[in-house]
Write a structure and sequence with these properties.
binds guanosine-5'-diphosphate; alpha+beta; 18 helices; 38 strands; 714 residues; globular; disordered C terminus; seven-stranded mixed beta sheet
């Protein structure tokens, strides 16, 4: 079988998700080892793990970048060869956008749980995201060698907290330091790992003292499998049992339809349980064929189209990650949905309406890259060549264009000025920053005209700190971040109309632009809409785009405090022109004048980003932590008692109030509390606080909505 013709039904595109510290990196590392691609066991503790290749990931012990890695596995029970592409999903919630984009392109997931910590609040976040993207899952309860680990409790928690139909297909043999193997409930046999590296497995009968328990669990397993399919149910009634292959068939069906989550167990660190986990990936998680079709639109007609995920259909792929590689340059990671992509070919980017040449196709392994000549439906590869393709873009066959659904990225909520240590570093810093920004669509870089400073914007404090780190380590650039600042927005309080005239007619060729605009508030998060109601040539159609452009430019800095204006509909409903003097520039300027005036008439409100916060603490600190949150203008959404002595607080809190929260929480709870935070939505800033912000920025409160209502009553 040649590499490129690898059968789709034997291909698995998976992600591994876990709460931080549950053992995702170690499990991934072991998978790469047992699949024969990594020849030396790396260890997270020594900072040599293969997937986490960026130095600061090792230092911080978190995984940031979604890298895709291919490996091959021969299934134990029938020796069939499978190709597994692993898409790395970061665990830290500051990187939610990374998780979401990874979920978009993978077909199935291994959820790793810590055998001691069990289902923690943060694992619930990823679980919910996987639900949203309908990703079938299997679970791996890890760290069963640790004191205090308990397989059965974790299974119970998965049922109660995640609402998952968690069904063990294995039971652990021995506890804690005596953990030595598992009972395979499908085959009803014991598996022991006998050597240090876990490469030698011994099979034997189910231990005497576990027979009863194993029978009980197997019985449940068989029933669950039978319930998934009428034929299996019939077979079960007739035989009173199911064969191992029938059980697998039923479980596979249940997993693919989200009714069942098969649960396995082991200890990645002690090299136990990983090979059966790989079997389960092949047995239960979907192949690209199971996904069936991908939907998109025809960019020319807007018509919705479906593509079967096969080689025979025209080529289409989604770019889900851009990385700058020091040796090969700009790498674009692609999930190929249909058709075949050949090296040297030109493909079409319908979003950007350009052709891109594919110079190289690379299959990324954990520690080397392999040049291949083609990539086929269902595959995940990295390509070199595309110049303008960004994360979320579609690449396709020009003769059969399709635009796949875009990945949505939230707008940045936090920004910090970034400065090079000295002149010598400045140019290199800008160059490096541009590369980093190209890799991460939630990261923005802009030049502030007024202050002459570079501003870096993103989704959280940690994300920006990591940029600073990468600058230093990867690019040798010393940079300093300024104080974190909130990305406020402005919006209008009500409807208003205004006129804009830009007319200069003194001698020679003049300027003539004249418009009437209406502004209306849109629901929060709706962004911007432009409506043109001009018919019959009051303004020639060639000038209309200039009007929209003028409005867009004016929206970049609102009249209240100079923050971007959002959530407005702008309607162009009247105006006039001059045969000779009218120009695009004149209409653009007229539109800017009209828009600003309309905003002043409508009155403005200041909006601030609100973060969804989950705080996990020992119960005795509840009072103090709640008190502190209230002082930070938080809305408490709920307090949940967890097992042990822990409680989880869910709250919404303005970003402005939680800078440096990590430090405060640490001191409030003597280092025992933890939290996660992600941008949720925007809300109006209370007036007294808004006033301070507006005045600080050197603006006045004259266009603030309430003062205006007062004024109009006069
Ligand atoms: P991640 O944050 O989910 O990627 O977790 P890591 O793989 O980095 O593991 C976190 C810590 O748990 C590291 O110190 C690992 O050595 C340790 N660890 C991982 N798996 C096991 C296991 O099976 N047993 C024990 N005792 N420790 C483990």
């Amino acid at each position: 079988m040649t590499e490129s013709k690898f059968p789709l039904d034997k291909t698995r595109n998976i992600g591994i998700a876990a709460h931080i510290d549950a053992g995702k990196t170690t499990t991934t590392e072991r998978i790469l080892f047992y699949t024969g691609r990594v020849h030396r066991l790396g260890s997270v503790d020594e900072g040599t793990a293969t997937m986490d290749w960026m130095p600061q990931e090792k230092e911080r012990g978190i995984t940031i970048v979604a890298a895709a890695t291919s490996c091959y596995w021969r299934r134990l029970h029938d020796n069939e060869l499978f190709r597994i592409n692993i898409i790395d999903t970061p665990g830290h919630v500051d990187f939610t956008a990374e998780v979401e984009r990874a979920l978009r392109v993978l077909d199935g997931m291994i959820a790793v749980f810590c055998g001691v910590g069990g289902v923690e609040p943060q694992s619930e976040t990823v679980w919910r995201q996987a639900n949203k993207y309908s990703v079938p899952r299997i679970a791996f309860v890890n760290k069963l060698d640790r004191v205090g680990s308990d397989f059965f409790t974790v299974v119970q928690q998965m049922r109660e907290r995640l609402g998952a139909n968690a069904v063990p297909i294995q039971l652990p043999i021995g506890r804690e330091s005596d953990f030595k193997g598992v009972v395979d409930l499908i085959e009803m046999k014991a598996i022991y790992w006998v050597d240090e590296l876990g490469t030698q497995m011994e099979f034997g009968p189910v231990p005497e003292d576990m027979k009863e328990l194993a029978m009980e669990y197997r019985q449940r397993l068989v029933e669950v499998a039978a319930e998934q399919d009428d034929e299996l149910m019939e077979a079960y009634f007739e035989q009173g049992d199911l064969t191992p292959s029938q059980i697998r068939q039923g479980l596979r069906k249940g997993t693919l339809s989200f009714k069942v989550v098969p649960v396995l167990c082991g200890s990645a660190l002690k090299n136990k349980g990983v090979q059966p986990l790989l079997d389960a990936v092949c047995d239960f998680l979907p192949s690209p064929l199971d996904i069936g079709v991908v939907r998109g639109t025809n960019p020319l007609t807007g018509e919705v189209i479906e593509r079967k995920l096969t080689d025979e259909e025209p080529f289409c792929a989604l770019a889900f990650k851009i990385q700058t590689d020091p040796y090969v340059g700009r790498l674009v990671y692609l999930r190929v949905y249909s058709g075949v992509l050949k090296k040297g070919e030109s493909v079409y980017n319908p979003g950007k309406d350009t052709n891109e040449r594919i110079m190289r196709i690379l299959r990324m392994h954990a520690n080397y890259r392999e040049d291949v000549d083609e990539a086929r439906a269902g595959d995940i590869v990295a390509v070199v060549g595309p110049k303008v393709t960004m994360t979320g873009d579609t690449l396709c066959d020009k003769a059969h264009p399709i635009l796949l659904e875009q990945i949505e990225f939230p707008e940045p909520v936090i920004f910090r000025v970034i400065e090079a240590k000295d002149r010598a570093h400045e140019e290199r810093m800008v160059e490096a920053l541009q590369k980093l920004v190209a890799e991460d669509p939630t990261l923005r870089l802009r030049y502030d005209q007024e202050t002459g400073q570079l501003v870096l914007a993103g989704m959280g404090e940690l994300q920006l700190e990591i940029v600073e780190d990468r600058l230093r380590r990867e690019f040798g650039v010393q940079a300093r971040l300024g104080k974190p600042q909130v990305a406020f927005r402005e919006t209008i309080a009500q409807e208003a109309i205004a006129e804009g005239r830009y007319i200069r007619q003194t001698g020679g060729r003049g300027q003539y632009g004249h418009v009437w605009l209406k502004v209306e508030p849109l629901p929060r998060g709706a962004g911007f809409e432009f409506v043109n109601q001009i018919t019959g040539g009051v303004i020639p159609s060639e000038f209309i785009p200039a009007v929209e452009k003028g409005v867009r430019e004016a929206m970049e800095a609102g009249v209240l405090a100079g923050y971007p204006v959002v959530d407005v509909r702008v309607t162009l409903f009247d105006g006039s022109y001059h045969e000779v003097d009218s120009s695009e520039l004149a209409f653009k300027l007229a539109a800017e004048i009209a828009f600003k005036e309309a905003c002043k008439q409508a009155g403005m409100i200041l909006l601030e980003p609100i973060m969804a916060l989950e705080v996990l603490i020992p119960k005795e600190y509840l009072g103090d932590v709640l008190g502190d949150l209230t002082a930070r203008r938080a809305k408490i959404k709920g307090v949940q008692e967890l097992t042990g002595n822990a409680v989880m607080i869910e709250a919404e809190v303005p970003l402005a109030e939680v800078f440096g929260y990590a430090t405060s929480l640490r001191s409030l709870t003597q280092g025992r509390g933890s939290y996660t935070m992600r941008p949720s939505h925007y809300e109006p800033v209370p007036m007294n606080i808004a006033e301070r912000i507006v005045l600080d920025r050197g603006y006045s409160m004259s266009y603030y909505a309430t003062s205006l209502v007062g004024a109009s009553n006069d």
